[in-house]
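Module 6 notes. Inverse folding takes a fixed backbone as the condition and produces residue identities as the prediction. Think of it as a translation problem where the source language is geometry and the target language is the twenty amino acids. Below is one complete input and output pair. Work through it position by position during the lab.
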């Protein structure tokens, strides 16, 4: 076989490469972790060397440090304040695209931690900013404890935010209120516990608070490690080390007796290192490599996409090899009969013949609703789409696009979808739509439509047969089983009277049997009523639903109530029967699967529409719920389609499951 690029095999390979989406190369998770390790190791080493240098300078030049302590303290605190506010700025401006709730929650918290730390700095002894704190150490110490409580508790709560809905504005309001209360308790109200007594040093409350804050911080580390899969390893190490150094910082602040003392200075050194590490973790890495902090979940998805891409490439190679073998076999058979170019035309003709032999219609529809290609089945059904006529004009004789447009949904999402539609002549088609790249590179929708009219009719007949069988069983239960049970109950009553004088014990047993039979008679009557047809008057559906609730409560010993609006009337007995069966099936599902303690059935009306809802307080819709798998759900969906109603199953507000079916009079039945 020739190696030039004009052979059929080469063309097949080029075709396969054209059909394979061109994904960019994505770094592997191992490469990401290695890069993150280097990024976190270098700043950690720099921070350790910086801390060691500061300690050496402090020990060798203690007198100078002591004389200039106020400047050093102010610079250290301002550095922490700027970092805290920087975290907030990054998190807040990324909130609309952020998929890491930990960063968003921590960013809001650090905004107010920075505010309290700034007031703490201004209120420090000898700063002279607040007249009420001149020469006093206690107010700044109180603010220090307040800020650390806010920081530690926020770090403890932040890991719990994963998987929850972001509520940034609510968090801002809560933190703003807490901060205002803390500042008011220190300054105007002066009710915050004393933390420092001049001449005596730290109070027990202050020392105990530092130890409690350390415990809270260590607990936050434990929670972080339990959720380490949600973090980039390098970022996680930086955050954990920042928290652990904050613990050392708090321990140092339990040892000083002089606000200008060595341990106070050491604690601020630890604070600088701690905030430097959190700066590296959130601000620096978040801006340089946002996929490791702000878009961690997206990065993991990219890794999964890389694996899928590799598998897809392997499958394409396998299919390419199969195609190459098939083409070479055809080439050997046709080499003596025709030229390589007539061969290309034959292959194209074979492809079009295959499309024309399909039992359904095939069409390529672009974003402007134009039909770029249609097979013979499409032309037989709808005619020639000449003159750039849009698909909604050719297929549905409409002047405006359909709302909603299924093809538009495929193009916007880039995913395959299927839907059903009915022609004006009453033929129903089930259509599968796939995103497809046309020969000019335009993304279009490949539609394959199969006529399912007979299938729908068969399904409708099956439901009608089932409904008739329900009626027969209901009549048999009422007319035969009910009458037999009633006769047996009368016999037991007579037997009990005969045995009353001579055999009281047997008479009591006969009476018990009579009671059980009467209970069975009541249950049989309830079941037969549930299987019977809905009354033909407009209130028949409401009456049947109320009886369903009462019967459910009586038989299953569960709370079940029904509420029916006066305006919720359905005059068509067939439609009313379908709605009743949907309610009955939804109640049965709740009894079987939800572990509910109460079920609410509501029939309401709004602007001419009738809405049926069944809600329970059970376990709710499970993760990965697929409403295509349950037979009961498919039956309810089909009944809804038959009467032209919309149907949905969703999690109910406050817990449990809600099943809704809305009947719109203007919507035609399927």
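Target side of the pair, the amino acids:
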């Amino acid at each position: 076989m020739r190696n030039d690029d004009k052979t059929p095999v080469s063309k097949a390979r080029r075709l396969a490469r054209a059909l394979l989406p061109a994904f960019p190369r994505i770094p592997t998770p191992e490469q990401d972790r290695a890069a993150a390790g280097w990024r976190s190791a270098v700043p950690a080493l720099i921070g350790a060397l910086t801390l060691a240098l500061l300690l050496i300078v402090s020990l060798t030049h203690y007198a100078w440090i002591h004389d200039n302590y106020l400047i050093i303290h102010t610079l250290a605190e301002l550095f922490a304040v700027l970092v805290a506010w920087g975290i907030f700025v990054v998190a807040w401006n990324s909130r609309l695209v952020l998929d890491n709730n930990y960063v968003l929650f921590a960013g809001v918290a650090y905004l107010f931690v920075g505010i309290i730390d700034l007031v703490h700095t201004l209120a420090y002894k000898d700063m002279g900013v607040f007249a009420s704190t001149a020469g006093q150490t206690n107010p700044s110490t109180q603010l220090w404890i307040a800020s650390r409580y806010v920081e530690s508790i926020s770090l403890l709560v932040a890991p719990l935010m994963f998987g929850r809905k972001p509520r940034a504005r609510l968090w801002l309001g809560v933190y703003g209120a807490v901060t205002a209360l803390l500042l008011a308790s220190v300054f105007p109200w002066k009710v915050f516990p004393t933390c420092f007594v001049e001449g005596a040093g730290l109070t027990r409350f202050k020392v105990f608070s530092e130890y409690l804050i350390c415990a809270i911080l260590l607990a936050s580390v434990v929670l972080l490690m339990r959720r380490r899969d949600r973090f980039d390893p390098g970022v996680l190490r930086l955050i954990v080390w920042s928290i652990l150094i904050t613990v050392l910082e708090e321990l140092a602040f339990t040892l000083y007796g002089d606000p200008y003392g060595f341990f106070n200075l050491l604690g601020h050194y630890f604070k600088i290192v701690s905030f430097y590490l959190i700066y590296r973790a959130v601000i620096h890495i978040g801006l340089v490599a946002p996929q490791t902090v702000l878009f961690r979940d997206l990065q993991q998805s990219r890794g999964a996409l890389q694996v899928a891409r590799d598998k897809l490439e392997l499958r394409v190679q396998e299919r390419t090899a199969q195609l190459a073998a098939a083409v070479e076999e055809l080439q050997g058979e046709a080499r003596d009969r025709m030229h390589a170019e007539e061969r290309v035309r034959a292959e194209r003709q074979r492809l079009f013949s295959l499309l024309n032999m399909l039992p359904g219609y095939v069409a390529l529809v672009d974003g402007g609703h134009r039909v770029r290609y249609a097979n013979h089945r499409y032309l037989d059904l709808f005619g020639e789409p000449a003159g750039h006529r849009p698909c909604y004009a050719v297929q549905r004789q409409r002047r405006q696009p359909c709302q909603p447009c299924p093809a538009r949904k495929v193009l916007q999402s880039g995913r395959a979808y299927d839907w059903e539609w009915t022609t004006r002549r009453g033929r129903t088609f089930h259509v599968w739509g796939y995103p497809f790249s046309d020969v000019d590179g335009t993304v279009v929708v490949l539609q394959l439509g199969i006529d399912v009219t007979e299938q729908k009719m068969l399904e409708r007949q099956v439901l009608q047969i089932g409904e008739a069988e329900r009626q027969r069983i209901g009549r048999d239960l009422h007319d035969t089983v009910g009458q037999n049970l009633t006769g047996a109950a009368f016999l037991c009553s007579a037997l009990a009277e005969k045995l009353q004088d001579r055999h009281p014990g047997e008479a009591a047993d006969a009476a018990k049997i009579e009671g059980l039979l009467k209970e069975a008679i009541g249950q049989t009557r309830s079941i037969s009523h549930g299987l019977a047809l809905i009354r033909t008057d407009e209130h028949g559906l409401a009456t049947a639903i109320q009886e369903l609730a009462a019967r459910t409560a009586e038989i299953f010993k569960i709370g079940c109530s029904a509420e029916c609006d006066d305006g919720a009337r359905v005059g068509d007995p067939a439609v009313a029967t379908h709605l009743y069966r949907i309610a009955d099936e939804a109640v049965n599902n709740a009894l079987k699967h939800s572990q509910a303690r109460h079920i609410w059935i509501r029939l309401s009306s709004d602007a001419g529409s009738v809405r049926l809802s069944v809600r329970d307080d059970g376990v709710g819709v499970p993760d990965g719920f697929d409403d295509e798998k349950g037979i009961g759900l498919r039956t309810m969906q089909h009944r809804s389609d038959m009467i032209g109603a919309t149907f949905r199953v969703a999690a109910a507000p406050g817990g449990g499951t809600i099943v809704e079916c809305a009947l719109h009079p203007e919507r035609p039945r399927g």
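Reference fact for the lab report: Residues 536-670 form a domain with the Heat Shock Protein 90 fold (CATH 3.30.565.10).
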